[in-house]
Amino acid sequence: MTIKPLHELKGHKAPVLTLDYSDKTFLGDNTLASGSEDKTCRLWDLRTNKVIKGIQKLDNPVTSVKFARKPDLPLFYLSSGNKIYVYDLRAEGPLCTMPNKTFEFSNDEINSIDVNENNKFLATADDDGNVNIIDLGSDKLYKKTTKKHQTICMTTKFRPKKSWDVWSGGMDSKVYEWDFSRGLPTNIYDMNPEEPTAAQMFNPPFVYSLDITNDGKWVAASLGDTTIQMISPPSKKVKSTSKIRLINGHNTMVNCMSFIETPNQSASLISGAANGGLAIWTGFYNCTSTTLEPAQTFQVDTATMQKVNWLKAYHKDDQLHVAIAGVGPTPESGSLCIYALPKVVN
């Protein structure tokens, strides 16, 4: 089923690489942030689909963006090159050109950032394979992990409800669970299946992105072999690790995904592949099998989106929406579109 965009958010002059969304921010409700190869970031009011702030005068493409986790905090974070920039959203006018703070603790390009749920720490994943933890109170490097990915670290994510848990994934096909108070890995998960298929031999399970449910029970890793690995770490009630491989949702690398949750039902997962394929996954909380197939699949209209780089799912007016960032009709152009998806029933 091909889906066309509800809205096109126009303004970026090059491919759009990354997104973040928040229901409530210092700037208002339903706010989307986008970062692009054009070395700018834009903040959008999705109630009007208009830009409310622009961030310019960066030296490199914007690779990751993050709102403060507390809506009353007027702070916004982004990575560009090997630096983290912090902006004060109280700045007058529609343009921000001067960061409030700059952190430079990475030697190589940063691919992903995350802020923990109490807004005390920021994690970075970089091309060196390192995960760095920055103390946002002291503005100092809190911890550099003692071990690192063998090659590029693509993604990092704090685990909710677990104060010292941060996760990372890389091009070594590994997912690390870290105790960042000590800088040590507590678990290392190999994404290579015990009996790889022919497709997996040619498309290794490099880890492109991570997402974690709000209750911290499920960690999802999107992989280069067209699948997604779900991991449910041990807890006080459940002593063993549960794993589910999400299969048959995509036919090329899965490079982005987003959990979507409502107060009255379990989380669902929306995943995206580089070729514009989308899949909705439900039922993993009650799954007793080691594999799970998608509830529904879609294809975005390639007239406006030639390649998908990132997505963020959210609810607005009781409707499931997904914001998708990527490459427009030509390889040099950017695309940022909003799509409506059918309601998910778990």
UniProtKB/TrEMBL annotation:
Keyword Oxidoreductase listed: no
The UniProt record lists the keyword Repeat: yes
Domain of life per record: Eukaryota
WD repeats: from-to residues: 9-54
Alphabetized UniProt keyword annotations: Repeat, WD repeat
InterPro entries, A to Z: WD40/YVTN_repeat-like_dom_sf, WD40_repeat_CS, WD40_repeat_dom_sf, WD40_rpt
Name of this chain's protein: WD repeat-containing protein 53
